[in-house]
Structure formats: C-alpha cells, structure tokens
Records
---
Amino acid sequence: MEKKIEIKKYINHQNQKLFDELSSVYNIELYLDPSMNSWGIDNNEPIIRTPKDDLNIASFTHELLHLYLDYQGLTSKEHIYYEIFNIHVLMSINRAMLFDHIYNVSCHKKIYPIFHNLGFQDKDFVQNNGFFFKRRDYLIIKTCRSLNIMSKRWISQFIGHFFALKNDIIESHEQYNRKYLYKLAKLDKRLYQIIYNFDTKWTKQTDLDCCENYLELSNDLFRWLKENNKIKK
Ligand SMILES: [Zn+2]
C-alpha cells in the first residue's frame, strides 16, 4: 500500500529553488511505495515514489531533475517508443527493458551536471554504485555472437552495457569502464559505432528534442540488423 509522504523534509538549501520552480507548474507528490526497488518518478506525472522514507535528499532531487527535463521540453519516452522506433528493431531486441534503460541513462547525461552543480556528491547520484558489467557478461556476449545464438539477448546486452559504461559518472570506475568499452568496440565495430554516434551527438546537444537522435539510431540499427540477418519477423 502506498502512503503519501510530506515533501517538506526532502527540501533543503540545495534543491529549494529547483523545487519552487517546478512547483509553480506541477503539483508534485511523494509516496511511500514498498513495491518499488528504488526511488522513481511516474511517466508523465509529477509523482515521485520511494520504497523507504529514508530522508535521502539526493535521491529525491535526482527524481525532481527527471521532471525538470520534461519541463525543459524533453521528448517523451512514449513518443519515441511508439512513433519513432522501427517495429522490426524493437522486435529484435529486448525492447521494453532495453529501451527504458537507454532513455533513462540518456536522461542522466543531462541531469548529472545539474545535480553536481547543486552541490550533491557524485556517489549519491544513483543508489547502486557497483559494477554492472562483469567479465562474465562480456564473455556471454562474445560467445553468443561468435556462435550466432541468442542474438536478441547479446545485442541487447551489448547496447545496454555500452550505455551503462558510457554514463557511469563515478570517477574511480573510469579505467575499468574504458577497458570494457574497448572490448565491446573490438567485438563489433559497426554496432559500437552506431551507438557511439548517438551518444556523442546527445552529449553535445543543448536542446532536449531528441526525435532526430532516436530516429537516426533506429534507422542505423535497422540497417545493421538487416545486414546481419537479425531482423525478427
Ligand atoms: Zn534517474
């Protein structure tokens, strides 16, 4: 059962201005929701949820910043998923999960600098700061690819891990992440290049209209899947 939480205790000198600005447009609500795995915000709603009333102001602010991107005109996830992405591409990857992940970490690229400027610590940006991509994951991708099996799985893992590694802001992870990015690049140069191009363009871009970015990603992936006979009918 969810229970409404008083927001005031999650506001401090770091996020007050941001909260005030957003509150002038949105009716922001905070709920205790033990069914959640971590802090989160509803799609297209100013409703923030947390599994624990843990007074984690950094996590609360992180979710506020997701709302801030919407406020600033970020293209919605639904629009990209339903209107932009090629259905054959979606059918050839673990679509919902992978797509959520790509969209989420791409948002983080824009959220993190603001979070940092508000004076929060890097280690508090996301709650789980461990290494997600291990040698074992890499070997699974490599083996499936060379045996030409479970293509939906390895392609999704390849893309998903690229985005996770590229958007990890923890400084002490840098060398480790770079090593695995290099390994992925060597494994499939063209696939790597496609997602690298998307990531680079999005990093440099200052506005938040990402229709073109995702359209290009979808087209490039479609071409790559076709050339590699990976289109699922
Ligand atoms: Zn987030």
Note: The chain has ten helices and four strands.
---
Amino acid sequence: MKIAVTGKGGVGKTTFSSMLSRMFAEDGYRVVAVDADPDANLALALGFPREVYDSIVPISEMKKLVSDRTAAETGTFNKMFKLNPKVDDIPEQHCQEYNGVRLLTLGTVDSGGSGCVCPEHVLLKRLCSHLILQNKDVVVMDMEAGIEHLGRGTAQGVDAFIVVVEPGERSLQTYRKVKKLGSDIGVKQVFVVGNKIRNKDDEDFIKSNLEDGEALGFIYYNQDVINSDRSNQSPYDVSTQTKDEIKVIKDRLLQIKENKNK
Ligand SMILES: Nc1ncnc2c1ncn2[C@@H]1O[C@H](COP(=O)(O)OP(=O)(O)O)[C@@H](O)[C@H]1O
Ligand SMILES: [Mg+2]
C-alpha cells in the first residue's frame, strides 16, 4: 500500500499521515513514513521524543551521502553526476524508528527555480521511486501541496493520492489542481479525506464539491488533536474518536487496494 498525502498548507496532512502510519504499524504492517515536506514535522506528530527529533538530519543535507551516491561534489551544478544513484540501502540506514513506524526525512532541495536538476534532487527523486516501486508493506508520504515533484513512474506506482481538505473553497481548489495534475501524468485515483469537520453540513459541502471524486472518510474537528500538538504528543495517542475515523479511512484504502488487485 503506497499512499501520497497532499493538500493545502495547514489542512492536516501531517496529522493524518502520522495517524494512518501508526495505525498500519499497530496492525502489524511494516510502515515507512516519508516526510517529503520541506517544512518537516512528521516526526513530532508520530510521537518521536524531542532528542530523536532534534537529531534528525534530512537526506538532502547529508552532503557526503549525496556526493558519494551521485558522484558529484555538492554545489557544483555543472559537473557530471549519476542520474541513477544507488538508493536501495538508504531506507534501512537512514530512518529513525519509533512506535513501529520507520521515518525517512527527505528535506529541502534548494533547486534555485523549477527545472533545475541538482544531485540532491536526483537522489531524493530516485529514493521516492524506489520506496514506491519496491514490494514493501506500507509507505505513507507526507507531501507538500501538489504532486509535480513526483515523476510519472513514481506517481503511477502510488495506490492512492489522498488530498486532505477542510470544508472550504480554498482547500477544495487545491484538490482540483492535484486532480488535474494527476490525470495529466496518468494517476487515475485521487481521493479526498475531509478534515476539521464540524457537522453533517460540512461533510455534504465537501461531497458536493468533489465532481466524480471519492471521499474516503471524514475526520471531525477535535480539541484533543489541537492539544496533542500543544503538548507535543502524537495525536494518535490522545483521541479514540479520531482513531475510529482514521480506521474507516484505512479500511476503505485496503478495500480499494484489494479491488485493484482483482
Ligand atoms: N481534526 C482536527 N481537529 C483539530 N485540529 C486539527 C485537526 N487536524 C489537524 N489539526 C490541527 O491543524 C494544524 C495543522 O495540522 P497539520 O497536520 O500540521 O497540517 P499540514 O501538515 O497540512 O500543514 C495543527 O495545529 C493540528 O493540530
Ligand atoms: Mg505538514
């Protein structure tokens, strides 16, 4: 099961990704959670202790790893470097594990504008493809808004793109953009998870704005989730209600995966 979670900033991508990862892990799956947002904070949402969180070095900042694997000296963009660096051992060697979830933090690629190909970028992209295309249990990627940064092969290997939306026009706009982009690169299934829902009206509002898309489920606005962020706990450890809502979504994902394999 390979899932990429995207959506507008602040909608709850990290909250959802962390809870889904922990739930799969609790069910006994081997889970790799990928923090692919330059503004990385998935580790905290997963409940990693502060010391571990503070010690995390994103892959893109591992200068030696980047230059060893791509045979490039970092910062020298006009030099030749490998476009197919070895990455298969990186997940084992550079992830942190807590609560049964293995976390990979990718970091930022300062590419100086779109279209730039730099060693860090090549390595991260290849690492993502590797994670998606290999035959492992569960990969959950907490992404920035949009899916441009995924290559076609990677995107097609993903079982579900999940766009987290709030009951509001702005995040639905992001959903439509992702859906359009997805269909441009051959991704058929882009699903929605409604978050910060207050009532049935909110659910209906989202449902009525999905065109032919499907909402996998709804997560209600929950003070416990906010408080978990304040007290630096994993939202997974504080709310049974939210967990129940995540379970509905997880079960639907498994059902979709099963139908796809038929
Ligand atoms: N269901 C929810 N109920 C209440 N607050 C939520 C809920 N989901 C997310 N939040 C809060 O919204 C804020 C943004 O969530 P986050 O997961 O970091 O969003 P993103 O990763 O999309 O930027 C956080 O303070 C989080 O605690
Ligand atoms: Mg986030």
Note: Residues 2-49+98-110+134-261 form a domain with the Rossmann fold fold (CATH 3.40.50.300).
